[in-house]
Amino acid sequence: MNLHEYQAKQIFREYGIPVPAGGVATTAAEAKRIAEQMDVGKWVVKAQIHAGGRSTGRFAGTTEEAGGVRVADSISQVEQIAQAMLQRVLVTPQTGPAGREVHYVYVEQYNAAVQAELFLAMLVDRQTGLLTLLASPSGGEDVESVSAEAIVKLPVDIYQGISQPDLESFSARLELEATEAQTLGQIAHAMYEIFTQKDASLIEINPLAVSAAGDLVALDAVITLDDNALFRHPEADQLRDRNELEVGELEAILHGLNYVKLNGNIGCLACGAGLSLATLDAIKLLGGEPANFLDVPPVAQVERVRQALQLVLSDPSVDSVLVNVFGGGIMRCDTIADALIMVNRETPIKLPLIVRLAGTNATFAIRRLRDMGPQVIFAENLADAAEKAVAAAKQKEKAVRRSWWNKVMGSEH
Questions:
Q1: With contact defined as beta carbons under 8 Å apart, do 221 and 10 qualify?
Q2: In what order do the strands lie in the sheet with 377-378?
Q3: Comma-separated ranges of CATH 3.30.470.20 domains in the chain
Q4: Residue 290 and residue 284: Cα distance in Å, rounded?
Q5: What is the 3-state secondary structure (H, E, C) of the chain?
Q6: Boundaries of CATH 3.30.1490.20 in the chain?
Q7: CB neighbour list of residue 341: distance below 8 Å, 6 or more residues apart
Q8: Which CATH homologous superfamily contains domain 114-232?
Q9: What is the pLDDT of residues 58-75, one digit of tens each?
Q10: How far apart are CA 242 and CA 238, in angstroms?
């Protein structure tokens, strides 16, 4: 679960990581009041969306050069910038062309005394499986172009934390002065506390500004919480911005489904993360594009499977649906069949529906679907299922294009 910058900075404050003064606003009037409360001569107004590249982003439908991070020289300008950002769609390299609508702006004290910008992050290194502290002396928006050799890494003992000798060696490789190294150590320890106590999967500060006096301050903040650990943090649900969720993601969260919206047109439902990923790979291999990743937990009952099916079928981008289930243990194929029958009784399924069932009660489930269920295209195995799903989606695309063409030609005559 991603947090907004203003939420991450509030957590930083609680753990002693230096951040500039600031406040969040949902209206231009609120932004003005926040600026008035800060006795500073310059402010930064930042659009709050779950995507990077905000400063170089552009608002949809305009040709204006200003992005989602802008400096204001007066309180009236703070209000004007906030008015120009709120309820507008900001498009950045990370949002894709659809962009994200801005519902919050963060008004922050402008920091003019920046001498250098560092990059600092904490995450689990996938290659080593260890909690790792990362840093680079070249921070800012171009950090992704920094070579791997320029990134300083420090493996961290998840139980013991960061030792002082390791921290001193880490700071030395960044060529920091003594005062800077001491503050960096405090920030690194705080990041470790946040990571372990909040069950985070990523903490990032970019840039971590260094002033001429040797002070360090987090000018930006990113925190991602581990979805699998949210049951231990019920208070975290208040931090979730439902406006940032893709189509269907909120419903998936409410029903305990592992769902990710993708850009294709083949709806997918499988049981188990491995089988779900294999299904997506098979579709891609055959030239198709999955519309989603949807892993139904193997312990799911009929009602949860029904919700999962409705989630896939309600996506307007879906042209065909592939249900791929290997029944084993608690999950039985007839559970899937019963859910399909229930959904079809409520609203007849008109999309091409490809079903591959194997394992526990597969023969019984297939017979039930043939007798009682929707019209189904059965598949023998994963390859057969993927091939039929891709072919059905392409056939649907052709039919849509033909219908559109006929309407156009009919309107001309």
A1: no
A2: 258-261, 292-296, 266-271, 320-327, 353-359, 377-378
A3: 114-232
A4: 7
A5: CECCHHHHHHHHHHCCCCCCCEEEECCHHHHHHHHHHCCCCCEEEEECCCCCCCCCCEECCCCCCCCCEEEECCHHHHHHHHHHHCCCEEECCCCCCCCEECCCEEEEECCCCEEEEEEEEEEECCCCCCEEEEEECCCCHHHHHCCHHHCEEEEEECCCECCHHHHHHHHHHCCCCHHHHHHHHHHHHHHHHHHHHHCEEEEEEEEEEEECCCCEEECCCEEEECHHHHHHCHHHHHHCCHHHCCCCHHHHHHCCCEEEECCCCEEEEEECHHHHHHHHHHHHHCCCCECEEEEECCCCCHHHHHHHHHHHHCCCCCCEEEEEEEEECCECHHHHHHHHHHHHHHCCCCCCEEEEEEECCHHHHHHHHHHHCCCCEECCCHHHHHHHHHHHHHHHHHHHHHHHHHHHHHHHC
A6: 21-109
A7: 368, 369, 372, 373, 374
A8: ATP-grasp fold, B domain (3.30.470.20)
A9: 888 776 667 899 999 999
A10: 10
- Determine if the peptide bond prior to 207 is cis (ω within 30°): yes
In this structure, the number of other CB atoms found within 10 A of the CB of residue 104 comes to 22
Q: Residues, the chain, total?
A: 413
Q: What are the tens digits of pLDDT across the range 134-152?
A: 999 887 766 665 667 778 9
Q: Taking the complete model, does pTM exceed 0.85, yes or no? A: no
CA atoms of 198 and 120, how far apart (whole Å):
18
Q: Does domain 21-109 have CATH number 3.40.190.10?
A: no
CATH 3.40.50.261 segments of the chain: 247-403
Choose which CATH entry (3.40.1670.10, 3.30.70.270, 2.50.20.10, 3.40.50.261) describes domain 247-403. 3.40.50.261
Alpha-carbon distance of 388 to 308, in angstroms, equals 21
Alpha-carbon span 255 to 1, nearest angstrom: 16
Pairwise CA distance, residues 349 & 353, whole Å: 8
Amino acid at 26: T
Strands 266-271 and 292-296 turn out to be: parallel
pLDDT in tens, 210-263: 988 889 999 999 999 998 888 899 888 788 887 766 666 666 776 778 888 898
Of residues 208, 203, 222, 140, the one with CA closest to residue 180: 208
